[in-house]
Amino acid sequence: MRLLLIDHLYYKYPDGIDSLEEFIDYINNSETKFIKMTELPEDHCVAPYFICEDAKTVYLNFAGVSRIEEISGKIMLRIEYERKLKEVVRTKCHDCVHFSGDFDDLEGHCDSLSLTGDCCLYRKNTDN
Q: What local confidence, expressed as pLDDT, does residue 74 receive?
């Protein structure tokens, strides 16, 4: 799915808009100062994967925006995201110094471990 990255935050395209070019035209032709958008926060996930239930409506003033780009991403139900994240925890985290030993505990994983297995906090445990 195509999503928008606007000044380091992620958003869905507004309804009826399917490309970055259409979106820019939409902004440029808008008569309102603020445009209603659906933000995809990274509070409990790592881009480019997002949790549907965390999406929120915001109003953006595009006069202050400095960068807009299109990315590929996926929006998932929380239960599906957490199921996939647990699979990644089982394969990636077992030898990390930060791992608690509980494969079902996602605390500390949601905002650092991507569903691709990339983790900004991973440090191999060399004590074993």
A: 97
